[in-house]
């Protein structure tokens, strides 16, 4: 079986070489692109399994690349950028990026993000045939058909909003979902003023599914940005 193919889109030679060397040591296949135009050609022709994308490219903004790729592909996109403002992260994630890593970064963290993205795609592909009728993640089970949720074999009762939130997170396991995205999907609006309400519902949901809310196992908070459901591996249980 071929190793996953990673497309590295980075105009800075030193960073590009660092990422390429890191992928090489892990025996990933990779292609590199130095600008946006080349990145789009590579994305179409090579069909990579993951894209690692810098936002500050010489010919176009990385957000535009995300937007163009998302018009025809759901390939995981990990943004690696020097832009550290929350609004930059939110914009990239709202446009369809899966994750955001701020420069400078550790190669170990980058590799971990790549593994998370690949596992998410593998999980989605393996469940496509059964239309993901039942979601299992560690001790959490969601039966979408019946609307039943259980943790460690014990059924828990959720409000309609809590259930919608949990289903949305589970169907995007491993992906960071912004406040705006969640508000739009669950409530049908993107009013920033509703974020405090979202936090309240997320807190009550956590109390029902997490063993320890101060050290959540399932739902990770990205302060100022949104939430992500973590994929729990069998050897983590």
Overview of this protein structure:
The structure is a single chain. The protein has helices at residues 13-25, 36-46, 62-70, 86-95, 107-127, 160-171, 179-186, 195-209; strands spanning 5-9, 29-33, 50-53, 77-81, 99-102, 134-137, 140-143, 148-151, 154-156, 177-178, 219-222, 226-229. α2 packs parallel to α3 (62-70) and α6 (160-171) packs across α8 (195-209). The strands form three sheets. A five-stranded parallel beta sheet has the order 2-1-3-4-5, sandwiched between helices. Strands 6-7-8-9 form a four-stranded antiparallel beta sheet, with helices on one face. A three-stranded antiparallel beta sheet has the order 10-12-11. The protein folds into two domains: 5-125, 3-Layer(aba) Sandwich (Rossmann fold), CATH 3.40.50.2300; 131-236, Arc Repressor Mutant, subunit A, CATH 1.10.10. β7 and β8 (148-151) form a beta hairpin. By secondary structure, it is α/β, with parallel strands linked by helices. The mean pLDDT is 89. The chain has eight helices and twelve strands. One of its GO terms (biological process) is positive regulation of DNA-templated transcription. Keywords: Cytoplasm, DNA-binding, Phosphoprotein, Transcription, Transcription regulation, Two-component regulatory system. It comes from Lactonifactor longoviformis DSM 17459. This is Stage 0 sporulation protein A homolog.
């Amino acid at each position: 079986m071929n190793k996953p193919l990673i497309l590295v889109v980075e105009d800075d030679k030193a960073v590009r070489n660092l990422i390429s060397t890191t992928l090489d040591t892990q025996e990933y296949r990779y292609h590199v692109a130095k600008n946006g135009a080349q990145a789009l050609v590579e994305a179409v022709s090579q069909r990579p399994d993951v894209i690692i994308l810098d936002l500050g490219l010489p010919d176009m903004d990385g957000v535009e690349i995300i937007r163009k790729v998302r018009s025809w592909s759901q390939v995981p996109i990990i943004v690696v950028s020097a832009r550290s403002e929350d609004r930059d992260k939110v914009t990239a994630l709202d446009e369809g990026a899966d994750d955001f890593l701020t420069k400078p970064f550790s190669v170990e963290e980058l590799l971990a993000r790549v593994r998370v993205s690949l596992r998410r795609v593998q999980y989605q592909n393996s469940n496509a045939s059964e239309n993901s009728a039942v979601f299992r993640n560690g001790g959490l089970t969601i039966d979408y058909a019946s609307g039943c949720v259980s943790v460690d074999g014990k059924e828990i009762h959720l409000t309609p909003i809590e259930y919608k939130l949990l289903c949305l997170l589970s169907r995007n396991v491993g992906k960071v979902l912004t406040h705006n995205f969640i508000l739009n999907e669950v409530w049908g609006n993107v009013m920033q003023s509703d974020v405090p309400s979202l936090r309240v519902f997320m807190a009550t949901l956590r109390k029902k599914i997490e063993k320890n809310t101060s050290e959540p196992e399932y739902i990770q908070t990205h302060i100022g940005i949104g939430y992500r459901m973590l994929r729990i591996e069998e050897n983590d249980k």
